[in-house]
């Protein structure tokens, strides 16, 4: 009897280990995460608009159909990245995701406070290499540090009513992201 | 070693073999079962529930917990970033009746402070639902309000006057209320700070 209980206790402990390790391994093992879904649709280090979600076709689950979206799938190995995004009439936001879909930074047009959202994305090493006086003189220069070399920048612009969607998509089409060669 | 000791040794080894096989099987079933359960049911820590609506504000930041991280990796979605907004999910009405697309529901009441909000109807896998008028949700700008600024959304399989959000008659649906540029988030604790709209079933 005692022995059977010990076996069961061992099973529960081992089960707990299996559970925790599978949960922790999931982001590494997932084949259909957002980044993998976007690989065949987006080039590296270029801003491309995403097809709007429809009932029979959508790139990712739970996309907001009121928004036009554009994605820049980045790789900072070749240098830092400059993002320029014109602000649409209603509401525009930029969200930065790691390769594993963790949203590490997000900013909206009001917080950015300009007609154009202008950001520099770099790895912590590249940020450390930026000359200090340049950092100070360009006080309004917004620098974001990416925790991973690869990731996603998602630009979202709201169409307050469906009729405004073509205009919003047009505004998004002017957004760019490009690698800045190291000086 | 005598024959009696030999038999005892065999019995001991057999018990060890059965015991460890049993333990490993149970462990695998328990562990994988718990993982599947938590990832499909959307278990995550730090949830914020207001009425029928639940949000996970931390999922839009680097403070995301391992369960939400695993669940997002599995589903393939990109969570709403904290500096962008917050998404509230509802699977039932205020009484706990699950969202059946063959029934009709009314959403009405107050919304928390936000520059814009949108409400969208999905199937449980996060896909939009096909319908005749190609309507999948409303934004705060396009919704029809009465003279006092109040609104009511009719979520129903068949056409309704006013703000009709079609369910397409599917068995189960999910509503997502997204607030953009809002103070609601990780620090929100009370319902007073974030009054979310009430949901009531009107009939089936």
Number of helices of chain A: 6
Structural domain tally of chain B: 2
Overall outline of chain A: globular
- Tally of strands of chain A: 9
CATH class division of the largest domain in chain A: Mainly Beta
Helix content of chain A: 25-40%
- Percent range for β-strand residues of chain A: 25-35%
Q: What average pLDDT do the residues of chain A reach?
A: 89
Characterization of the model:
The complex is a heterodimer of chains A (183) and B (204). Chain A has 183 residues and is an alpha+beta fold. Chain A has 2 domains: 1-30; 34-180, Sandwich (Immunoglobulin-like), CATH 2.60.40. Helices cover 32% and strands 31% of the residues of chain A. In chain A, the strands form 2 sheets. In chain A, strands 1-2-8-4-5 form a 5-stranded antiparallel β-sheet. In chain A, strands 7-6-3-9 form a 4-stranded mixed β-sheet. In chain A, a hairpin with a 4-residue loop joins strand 4 and strand 5. The longest helix of chain A is centred in the N-terminal third of the chain and has 28 residues, at 2-29. The model of chain A has no long low-confidence stretch (mean pLDDT 89). The mean pLDDT of chain B is 89. Chain B has 204 residues and is an alpha+beta fold. The termini of chain B are far apart. Chain B folds into 2 domains: 1-41; 43-203, Domain of unknown function DUF1214, C-terminal domain (Jelly Rolls), CATH 2.60.120.600. The radius of gyration of chain B is 24 Å and the shape is elongated. In chain B, the strands form 2 sheets. In chain B, strands 1-2-3-9-5-6 form a 6-stranded antiparallel β-sheet, with no helix packed on it. Chain B has a 4-stranded mixed β-sheet with strand order 8-7-4-10, with no helix packed on it.
């Amino acid at each position: 009897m005692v022995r059977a209980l010990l076996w069961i206790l061992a099973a529960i402990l081992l089960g707990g280990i299996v559970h925790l390790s599978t949960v922790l391994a999931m982001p590494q093992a997932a084949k259909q995460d957002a980044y993998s879904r976007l690989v065949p649709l987006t080039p590296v280090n270029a801003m491309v608009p995403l097809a709007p979600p429809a009932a029979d076709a959508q790139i990712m689950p739970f996309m907001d159909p009121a928004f036009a979206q554009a994605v820049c799938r980045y790789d900072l190995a070749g240098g830092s990245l400059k993002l320029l995004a014109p602000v649409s009439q209603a509401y525009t936001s930029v969200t930065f995701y790691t390769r594993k879909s963790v949203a590490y930074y997000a900013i909206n047009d009001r917080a950015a406070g300009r007609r154009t959202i202008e950001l520099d994305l770099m790895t912590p090493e590249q940020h450390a290499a930026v000359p200090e006086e340049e950092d100070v003189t360009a006080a309004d220069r917004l620098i974001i540090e990416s925790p991973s070399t690869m990731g996603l920048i998602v630009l979202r612009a709201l169409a307050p009513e469906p009729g405004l969607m073509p205009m919003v998509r047009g505004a998004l089409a002017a957004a760019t992201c490009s690698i800045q060669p190291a000086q | 070693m005598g024959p009696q000791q030999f038999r005892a040794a065999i019995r001991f080894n057999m018990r060890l073999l059965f015991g460890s096989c049993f333990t490993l099987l149970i462990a695998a079933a328990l562990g994988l079962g718990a993982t599947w359960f938590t990832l499909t049911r959307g278990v995550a820590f730090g949830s914020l529930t207001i009425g029928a609506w639940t949000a996970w504000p931390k999922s839009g930041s680097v403070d995301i917990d391992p369960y939400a991280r695993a669940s997002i990796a599995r589903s393939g979605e990109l969570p709403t970033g904290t500096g962008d907004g917050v998404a509230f999910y509802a699977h039932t009405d205020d009484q706990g009746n699950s969202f059946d697309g063959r029934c009709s529901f009314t959403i009405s009441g107050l919304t928390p402070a936000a520059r814009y909000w949108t409400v969208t109807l999905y199937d449980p896998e996060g896909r939009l639902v096909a319908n005749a008028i190609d309507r999948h949700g409303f934004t705060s700008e396009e919704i029809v309000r009465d003279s006092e600024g109040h609104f009511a959304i009719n979520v129903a399989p068949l056409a309704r006057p006013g703000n009709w959000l079609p369910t397409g008659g599917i068995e189960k649906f999910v509503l997502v209320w997204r607030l953009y540029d809002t103070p609601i988030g990780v620090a929100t604790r009370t319902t007073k700070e974030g009054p979310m709209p009430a949901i009531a079933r009107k009939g089936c």
